[in-house]
Amino acid sequence: TETTEMKRGIFILFEGADRVGKSTQVQSLFGHLSTTLGLPTKQLRFPDRTTQTGTIINSYLQNSTQLDDRALHLLFSANRWESKDTLLKHLNEGNSLVVDRYSYSGVAYSAAKGIDFDWCFGCEKGLPAPDLIFYLKMDTEDATKRGDYGNERYEKVDFQKKIKEVYESKLVNSSWNVINANRPIEEVSKEINEIVDRSIKNGIQNKPIQCI
Ligand code: NYM
Ligand code: MG
């Protein structure tokens, strides 16, 4: 029987431009946490296209709705704010979260359009912050060669280069884990799993949940 005291969950985030392999790594880490380590874990992604704001966002991304860039930015942000309580509830009940995109995507994509960086970031302040961030880094040209590229809005080489530039010059800092994503899937997963295992060993869950 379990006698260990319950710990809060860990909030792990994957960020990066399109087609760098985030969803694959999210799934792989989910398997590592839930199956290998036996931790209760949930997999989430933003935008959450199932909510009302998500429906508008989805139709914008599929090119069937036009929207002002700032209005769109606020919708993406609202899409996170509306899940704030759920995120906190999961973490406090001991569920770890593996999340595909979050606030930094919101800032990177909007700032890449030319919207003021601080204005973009301001909307995110107060949201629960991730404990660990993995930035999957890959040359834009390599990412654009991947399957299904170009089906959604934003999947254009020049724009992807701008997004990468915002991430790498203004968002990624020394607390982020920058992962060379231009390698076989298993090699990337192995590096990520090792970082997560080490962080758990070092008591990442013992500090309170931070805010952005
Ligand atoms: N995206 C995602 C934004 O522009 N702002 C945001 O806040 C978020 C979370 O939506 N091209 C963009 C990035 C992607 C697109 O995400 C949909 P995905 O992970 O490619 O399905
Ligand atoms: Mg995409």
Kindly list the characteristics that best describe this protein.
9 helices; 212 residues; five-stranded parallel beta sheet; nucleoside diphosphate kinase activity; binds magnesium ion; binds 3'-deoxy-3'-aminothymidine monophosphate; globular
Descriptive overview:
This protein has a five-stranded parallel β-sheet, sandwiched between helices. The protein has 212 residues and is α/β, with parallel strands linked by helices. It contains nine helices and five strands; from the N terminus they run E-H-E-H-H-H-E-H-H-E-H-H-E-H. Helix 1 crosses helix 9, helix 2 crosses helix 3 and helix 3 packs antiparallel against helix 5. The protein binds 3'-deoxy-3'-aminothymidine monophosphate and magnesium ion.
- Rg from C-alpha positions? 17 Å
Kindly state the number of beta strands.
5
Helix content: 40-55%
Amount of beta strand: 5-15%
The rounded distance between the terminal residues' Cα atoms is 37 Å
Describe the strand arrangement of the main beta sheet, using strand numbers. 2-3-1-4-5
Task: Report low-confidence residues grouped into runs of 5 or more.
Answer: none
Mean pLDDT: 96
What assembly state would you assign to the polypeptide chains in this entry?
A: single chain
Largest sheet, described in full?
Answer: 5 strands, parallel
The helix/strand order is EHEHHHEHHEHHEH
Unique bound compounds = 3'-deoxy-3'-aminothymidine monophosphate, magnesium ion
Class by alpha and beta content? alpha/beta
Backbone shape: globular
Per DSSP, the total helix count is: 9
Protein name: Thymidylate kinase
Enzyme class: transferase
Family: Belongs to the thymidylate kinase family.
EC number: 2.7.4.9
